[in-house]
Amino acid sequence: MTSGQPLPQDPEPSLTIAQVAERTGLTHDTLRYYEKAGLIERIGRTTGNQRRYQTADLAWLEFLLRLRETGMSIADMQHFARLRSEGDATVADRLAMLREHRAGLADRIRALRRNATALDDKIDHYEQLLDERQQGTDETT
Amino acid sequence: MTSGQPLPQDPEPSLTIAQVAERTGLTHDTLRYYEKAGLIERIGRTTGNQRRYQTADLAWLEFLLRLRETGMSIADMQHFARLRSEGDATVADRLAMLREHRAGLADRIRALRRNATALDDKIDHYEQLLDERQQGTDETT
DNA sequence: ATAGAACCTGGAGTGCGCTCCAGGTCAAGC
DNA sequence: GCTTGACCTGGAGCGCACTCCAGGTTCTAT
Predict the structure, then answer these.
(1) Which of A34, A110, B73, B130 has its CA 20 to 30 A from that of B89?
(2) Bigger pLDDT: B133 or B8?
(3) CA angle in degrees (0–180, nearest 5) for B15-B19-B22
(4) Which residues form a coiled coil (chains A, B) (predicted)?
(5) How many contacts, defined by CB atoms under 8 Å, are there between A and B?
(6) pLDDT, tens digit, 9 for 90 and up, residues A12-36
(7) Distance, CA of B49 to C1' of C4, in Å
């Protein structure tokens, strides 16, 4: 088993919302919005009702950010978060979600690479146009 | 010079908005919105004021779609379209825009690939969890 | 000639993902 | 004790990229 309850003298590095905002690049408004929306479970509070983020909260947030950066919608992240909160019984479902998301991501990367190549062609075309234009400034054929 | 004005007997393959919608995957509303927004210049009309898209319109639309798919905003596409409508003098500006967009795209593809790798790790982790859970169903260590 | 589908316009409405606001509470330094 | 800045809540507002609507016109097939 693991050892400790969060005793008072536990040096668990709890962060304020401002510190988390700086670390993640999110605003405090977005952090509160994510909590309200159920993307992150209710963050622990001080006696004065102020949030204190623990290491595990940070790790989950960073995972969420990876999902977001790869284009997952808030709705899907809510779904994933709900499954997670339901415990180990939902591991298979969560795995399925991640696999599907991963597959979609692969598709999107492939599409972007194809479009990048097309863009390169267009850029080449523009470079040629520009060369001709600059060469032709004096109208001599 | 090139040869023909669009004479009546010119077999220029003009398409209705519905046909263009089907070809591009855009809705007719989106096509009209893009025209209203200045992303595409005013499409030629029949005497009865209905749009007829020409080959050149299609080509431009497909280019716009590539810009969109690679994440360019409507505002930036408007900017590009405006430059284009101003003629050859803006070739250098347009080239600069495309190069910048291309560079951002490269960054985004790199970030997606990094995130994809992180996702793969997470998936591996979930697969292991699932294996343990299935093996451990009978509680024998 | 006429029915019905496709098209037209200007403008309002929608969904997403935040972002801002008002009005208050809490914590730390002077 | 008091000020000042960080934090709290519920709810309204915003920008983007469409999407829909009402009311009218045009095209096509019979």
Answers:
(1) B73
(2) B133
(3) 145
(4) 95-129
(5) 86
(6) 779 999 999 999 999 999 999 999 9
(7) 20
